[in-house]
Design brief:
The complex is a heterodimer of chains A (241) and B (380).
Chain A: H1 9-17, E1 21-25, E2 28-31, E3 45-50, H2 60-69, E4 84-90, E5 97-103, H3 111-115, E6 121-123, E7 129-131, H4 141-145, E8 152-153, E9 172-173, H5 179-182, H6 189-196, E10 202-206, H7 213-220, E11 236-239
Parallel strand pairs in A: 3-11
Antiparallel strand pairs in A: 1-2, 3-10, 4-5, 6-7, 8-9
Helix pairs in contact in A: 2-6
Chain B: H1 2-21, H2 27-30, H3 38-51, H4 53-58, H5 60-84, H6 87-90, H7 92-125, H8 127-131, H9 135-156, H10 161-172, H11 183-198, H12 223-254, H13 275-296, H14 305-311, H15 330-337, H16 344-347, H17 354-360, H18 362-373
Helix pairs in contact in B: 1-11, 5-7, 7-9, 9-11, 14-17
The chains are: A alpha+beta (241), B mainly alpha (380).
Chain lengths: 241, 380
């Protein structure tokens, strides 16, 4: 049964009924599943990136992102999707050089949301900035408005999208901070991949929760936001730039 | 009822054409001034048929409403082809055309309605037209108003169009199937049948006149002819009224549920005991849940598209789930049959993902539920 897709309704009922499920009326099936929680304004999800821990030769986070969302290259670098990029910055005075990932910064005051003519670009109650592709008309104003070059336009016909990440030609997309994982109680794919390398340069958590590790770290050490002068107040913070 | 209506329409049409053909020697005069070249005559006749040339030069209002009405009607008829044609009969390309014309047909119907309203206003407002208006003309106009209005309303209640199509294909192939008993749909179809019956008795089948283009001689009806006409009228009224009364009685007795199409194959776990609710409103359900999932992060709802796909998967010969481009795909099969385009899978995956398969697999669900109740579960 377990390797077959062609299960019958009876099999389904039997499997579910044995465990905390009940048929309360013919055709009405109740079964236990994790109660969905609404995104709450109490949380503000954020990522702290320790630049000193980030290896210039490592692109684990970029690969993990591509795997998670099925971001495939079409061999056209100018238009290939790129939700997370590795940047190398250097100080010409000292020769000091750092490499670190840049993705959607999930601003508290996102310029992309301000300029969107259809309301497709929006910020969730918990601070995650997303695109509603049912509303997006592909005008790309948000791409122009974003100071972080975080957004991409889908130029190609896509097939076999991930069920949790619908992507389609003609709409704008960007890092979702793996919102489907967060709603599921898991960490973003890039953060997970970074810990898997042993460097753990990325720390994910709730900035609003004073007991979370990220809130404690942000309170203890000096961190920066990219282009803080624009006062967009990103949820992605960097340590050691 | 539909067979009888179609027969009356065809016989009436044939009679009109037959009458006209008896005057066919006058055809050449109709496209005067004389055409020097056969091509010129053809062009002039074509402009008469397609653009209503003489109406344009004689009665401008008539031409405006007539153009609206006729081109609207053309689009509406093309749109309704989806009920009368099986995609297998006409080939993929022609069917793509039927699919393409669907949205235009919607607006064509509005043009048609505007034309009929214009004609009605013309009959009321213009003195010389009002004098020429008989009861049949008024009845035809009322029917022509009621048919599109009832059509739009029956569209609004999300009729099960695939079942309607099965019914009409059944009519064409003499294999009658049950019709969904929507009050508005039944009213619409009854009005159409009535219109088909009344049409031959009015001025509306005037395209037959292209064969003569001059009016018939008017002769005073004899007494006997008048009696015959009245008898025919009584029979027709009965023919239309009896099915309406019978259907109405059935409906009152059984509360609209009788003679539903066979939905036993449908999984009833969707929405209580009435699968038609799911069939009719599936786009609304999907869109509503989209909003909840995207804006509030309420995932794991039963109506997420992944769940739909997971249950409704169709497999190819190799046992692999098929893509929406495959005509066997669950959604594609119906949508193609009803000539309705579908954009969902331009972005969403049309096949179950391994995670989606697991979601409804009893063994995996067993594990997930056990995990949920275990203390310190990550699912909390």
């Amino acid at each position: 049964m377990s390797d077959s897709l062609d299960f019958s309704r009876r099999g389904l009922l039997a499997g579910a009924a044995a465990f905390a499920a009940a048929t309360i009326a013919p055709g009405v099936l109740l079964y236990a599943q994790p109660a969905p929680q609404k995104a709450s304004a109490k949380s503000r999800w954020g990522i702290l990136i320790d630049v000193n821990q980030c290896d210039a030769g490592c692109d684990g986070c970029v690969k993990a992102c591509a795997d998670e969302f099925g971001l495939t290259s079409f061999g056209r670098p100018t238009t290939d999707p790129q939700w997370i990029r590795k940047l190398t910055v250097s100080d010409p005075e000292t020769g000091n050089s750092h490499s670190f990932p840049v993705m959607c910064q999930h601003c508290k005051h996102p310029p992309c949301v301000d300029v969107c003519p259809t309301g497709a670009s929006f910020i969730r109650a918990d601070g995650i900035v997303l695109v509603d592709r049912h509303l997006c008309i592909g005008c790309r104003y948000c791409m122009m408005a974003c100071p972080y070059k975080a957004r991409n336009f889908v130029h190609e016909n896509l097939k076999d999208q991930k069920s949790y990440a619908p992507r389609g030609k003609g709409t704008v997309e960007s890092c979702t901070m793996c919102v489907h994982r967060i709603d599921d109680g898991r960490k973003p794919a890039c953060v997970e991949a970074c810990s898997a390398t042993g460097r753990a340069a990325m720390l994910f958590g709730d900035l609003n929760d004073p007991n979370s590790e990220i809130a404690k770290r942000v309170a203890a050490v000096s961190t920066t936001q990219i282009r803080a002068d624009l006062r967009t107040d990103p949820a992605i913070r960097y340590q050691g730039i | 009822m539909f067979y009888a209506a179609a027969a009356i329409l065809l016989i009436g049409l044939a009679t009109k054409i037959w009458k006209s053909l008896r005057h066919s020697t006058r055809l050449k005069a109709s496209v005067s001034p004389s055409a020097d070249h056969p091509l010129e005559g053809t062009i002039r006749l074509a402009s008469e048929v397609v653009l209503f040339r003489s109406a344009f030069f004689s009665d401008r209002w008539n031409w405006v409403f007539g153009t609206c009405f006729h081109f609207g009607l053309l689009l509406v008829l093309l749109r309704h082809l989806r009920y009368a044609l099986d995609p297998a009969w006409v080939g993929d390309l022609a069917w793509a055309g039927v699919t393409l014309v669907q949205p235009f047909g919607f607006y064509g119907g509005l043009a048609l309605l505007g034309g009929v309203l214009g004609f009605s206003a013309r009959r009321v407002l213009f003195k010389e037209v009002r004098r020429n208006t008989g009861p049949v003309d008024a009845l035809l106009l009322v029917l022509l108003l009621a048919v599109p209005v009832s059509g739009y309303f029956s569209g609004m209640v999300h009729t099960d169009v695939v079942a309607v199509k099965d019914f009409f294909i059944g009519l064409v192939t003499a294999d009658v199937k049950p019709l969904p008993t929507d009050p508005l749909l039944l009213i619409h179809l009854w009005l159409v049948a009535t219109l088909m019956v009344v049409l031959p008795f009015g001025k509306m089948l005037h395209f037959a006149d292209i064969f003569e283009t001059i009016a018939e001689k008017v002769s005073a009806p004899s007494h006997r002819a008048l009696i015959a006409k009245r008898a025919v009228a009584v029979v027709l009224v009965l023919a239309l009224a009896v099915p309406a009364v019978v259907a109405g009685g059935q409906v009152l007795a059984d509360g609209w549920t009788r003679a539903q199409p066979d939905y036993t194959k449908l999984i009833k776990a969707h929405r209580g005991d009435d699968p038609t609710v799911m069939i009719r409103n599936h786009p609304d359900f999907l869109l509503h849940k989209q909003h909840v999932v995207v804006y509030s992060g309420m995932r794991n709802t039963d109506e997420s598209i992944e769940r739909c796909v997971t249950c409704h998967v169709k497999k190819d010969a190799g046992g692999q789930p098929v893509d929406f481009e495959n005509p066997k795909h669950f959604c594609t099969e119906c949508h193609n049959r009803a000539a309705v385009t579908m954009d969902c899978f331009e972005c969403h995956n049309s096949k179950p993902t391994p995670a989606g398969q697991a979601a409804l697999d009893p063994a995996t669900r067993f594990a997930a539920i056990k995990d949920f109740f275990a203390e310190g579960s990550s699912l909390r």
